[in-house]
Fold this protein.
Amino acid sequence: MAEHLLLRHRDIPDIDRLEVYRAHGGFEAFRKAVTQMDPDAVTDEVKRSGLRGRGGAGFPTGLKWSFMDKSNWPHYVVANADESEPGTFKDREIMERNPFQFLEGVAIAAYAVGAQRAYIYLRGEFWPIARWLDEKIAELEAAGLLGDNLFGTDYSLRIYTHLGAGAYICGEETALLESLEGKRGQPRVRPPFPPQKGLWGKPTVVNNVETLTNVPLIIERGADWYRTMGTEKSPGPKVFSLSGRVKRPGNYELPLGTTFRELIFEHGGGIIDDRPIKGIMAAGASSSIMVATDEVLDTPMDYESPQKVGGMLGSASVIVLDDTVNMAWLVKKTVHFFHHESCGKCTPCREGTYWMDKLIQRIMSGQGTQQDVETLYEVALQIRGKTLCALGEFSTMAVVTGIERFKEDFEAVVRGA
Amino acid sequence: MKNAFYEQHRDEIEAILAKYPPEHKRSAMLPLLYLVQREFGGHIPPEGMQIVAEILDVSVTEVDGVVGFYTLFHDRPGGRYRIQVCTDMPCALRGAEDFLHQLEDALGIKAGETTPDGLITLEEVMCIAACDKAPVFQVQTPEGLTYHENMDLEKALALVEAWRKAEAERAAQ
Ligand SMILES: Cc1cc2nc3c(=O)[nH]c(=O)nc-3n(C[C@H](O)[C@H](O)[C@H](O)COP(=O)(O)O)c2cc1C
Ligand code: SF4
Ligand code: FES
């Protein structure tokens, strides 16, 4: 097994202690950036590394940083630690076990965009993690690694944690900013995007926890080294959260481009009771359901390939489905989730998820007809392309692909089989 | 505005406000609501909203809207311990729904209800980022929140027993 670069605690269990992290080179990348590199040079190095956002969209990180409006100050960095996509539990492990590497990533990002304040927005359920990070931040301040005039320069930086209070939509970056401003977490109309107008109307970079945790490595070891891992268009390591009907669910750090087969059967130990695998959702509850054919199993998990076989990588939360799972049941669960989490700001999502929930409940209660299945399908298609944020779209993914690709599951429920 | 609640909790409130630029103190909304919820024993009554509205110079209606939006804020009292079982899809694939039903039977209440002694409220929640350790629940109390992973009925009931004991001791004092 190659060295862990993100889940480094698996090789060095006490890396959550500052002296241990520093003994392994910790905060040298931040020092190097602040004392030897121009902020733009840091952004350029991240650009050259090809690092892409790990929060779901895969947007190039360095490019995002370069969009910050330099005519409007101050700038802010916000770490997205909302981690609420069903099936995703990687940011939590990183923050709990390798907190300093994450915090160093936040610090380097802040320096690169000229921010003197950064916030970590954690979902409310991560209350204990927020307390833990507060302790780590205090240690860094005491050690002179955060605070005023860092390393004898005129650069100063403070990092603060901020807790949400239970709302999936707050993972969407503009809803997150609204929530951080003390409001209901409802998405904003875009453009403008946060690098133009973000927190308190000021240019803001929002990055996922795992994205930021990659950054110290890139500055320490260089973009060329980073590109030796993963694929040409999706370089670097990735933490895959594996869940569902596998023998060994958990987080696995593997290069981008690893196949589904390797993740599920080698690392995950295969299917519970060695039953047949039936489907895969690669991006949590927001994903289309892929039929687990050999072609799909041999597809590399990078940001391009799953799309060619009717899926997407998203946050790389791989949920495995075996032949015990009826997809109509699964659709009931995902629709219930999105109906519950719709923020209600736009009609197609608010009403659409309501009707989908009603229909699938009727179908699952045994009262439904084939006509209800068709109506459900139509309602899902009606939502698409008409919503303010991607949640509306997400709510339709399992519905549409479930009905298209696993028709017999719905028929069986309708027949009462 | 600095009300009596502010004076009583000055240090904590000022530490919260110090995290945000003074012109953006509204950002302290969620942390202040957590503080108020703790002080009112696990829920935020109208006077709690009033307190926050005064400190942040916003209307009570706005505070009310925020409280209603987030699932970890409660505008009505519940049990001192809120057992929040994740029954979302990835956990349900690993037996979470069965686990919830066992717990309902053992506690004699359904999800959404509170035990007659007011100690426990049982709730269903969406994914809490612990899907590889199902069955899981979090326990929300006025003071905070803890995770309980790889649960079974026996372990869950042992926790409940410990709370009952702690509560009986508290009552005896
Ligand atoms: C409904 C919805 C939920 C989201 N939830 C999260 C989340 O929990 N964590 C996250 O990092 N990004 C989430 N995102 C993506 C963010 O909007 C944003 O793209 C991301 O934080 C950018 O960081 P990255 O470029 O480093 O990936 C969500 C997006 C949507 C539409
Ligand atoms: S799509 Fe849904 S979640 Fe997104 S803004 Fe509209 S109502 Fe809110
Ligand atoms: S589905 Fe239960 S913790 Fe994720």
